[in-house]
Specification:
Blueprint (H helix, E strand, L loop, with lengths): L1 H7 L8 E6 L5 E4 L7 H12 L1 H6 L4 E3 L2 E8 L3 E5 L5 E6 L3 E7 L5 H17 L3
Length: 128
Amino acid sequence: MNSLLEEALLLTGHVDNAAIIRIKDGAVKGKSPQFSMQPFDWMSIQHAFEKPREARIMDAGVTLSDAGYRVVRADTMAVYGKNSSSSGIIICRTHQYYILGTYVAGMHASIAVEAVEKLADYLRKKNK
């Protein structure tokens, strides 16, 4: 799964860190070298998908590695967040996984979103 992340997301030059996380238990199935996730991060991701409306009204609707992201889009299939340092997070849901990508200042959010969404679509077609 690490090579899939590398080819589909990291090589775009617009995804800083990425991971594939199993929905049922939060197990990280693939990740970029610098990716890290705390137990609270996993809970905030789950909450954003289970209660997207609540996630959108919270200042830090999603957290990852001590960074809080204000959720700008949340529904049952995707959560997008931004923080004050011009970085952001994209999380897409497939049948079995959350596909997560982050971007930082100087990267194009639209390209990061497109890459994460395309990988999620690919896995959905494979029933994964």
